[in-house]
Amino acid sequence: MLSILTLIFVVSTAYAGLWPKGTYTLVKPKAGCPFGWKEGWRDQDNEDSRNRNSITWGHHFYGTFGVNMMFHYCTKDEHVISGHSDWPRGNYCILRQGISCPPGFGTGSILWDDEDRNSNSLGGVLPSGEYGENTLINYCCRSDGLARKRISLPKRKPFYLLRFRSHCQQVKGMLVREEIVLTDDEDTRNGNRVSGDHPMNDGGVNNRLYYCYYH
């Protein structure tokens, strides 16, 4: 009897350390991607004239950040071993991978009107979107729980979520730090736009997103 209980505990603990089922993308931190996830990057050529890009001092993003912004991404596909659970209820966003979001999320997008004469580039596996002269990224967001109610997610490595309609979602056993990214987008006939359920964004001619770093 004791051995059966021990086995159940070991299996439960193992699954607790696995990411929710489904396919999705997270922004890559300096600590790296979860084991087995696919990686990719997008280099956005932002406004050239009097560029005002900014990023929280001491941030933990993996990439290159100056007058242009290069973010890296971690994508979990159907071949990665995952837990049996869906994403927990809460108030947060992840990045969409594929044609739909995991159960419980609404979908939306943000368009960055990059510099008109730009040298945008990319590589690897990226979140769902459009990557040409401008950058459009699709997101999955939910607000079916309280941000202050701690949710269970793997805590063996740091990771990022995004704010949706509240403060940063609390996660069991982890500290959280808000990190803000402002991109100075095209000044002339700016075409920035948002749609659907998208991360908190000041909007306007420049996009400002609020990331939550868990460690």
TrEMBL record:
<feature type="domain" description="Apextrin C-terminal">
    <location>
        <begin position="19"/>
        <end position="214"/>
    </location>
</feature>
<protein>
    <recommendedName>
        <fullName>Apextrin C-terminal domain-containing protein</fullName>
    </recommendedName>
</protein>
<dbReference type="Pfam" id="PF16977">
    <property type="entry name" value="ApeC"/>
</dbReference>
<feature type="signal peptide">
    <location>
        <begin position="1"/>
        <end position="16"/>
    </location>
</feature>
<dbReference type="InterPro" id="IPR031569">
    <property type="entry name" value="ApeC"/>
</dbReference>
<keyword id="KW-0732">Signal</keyword>
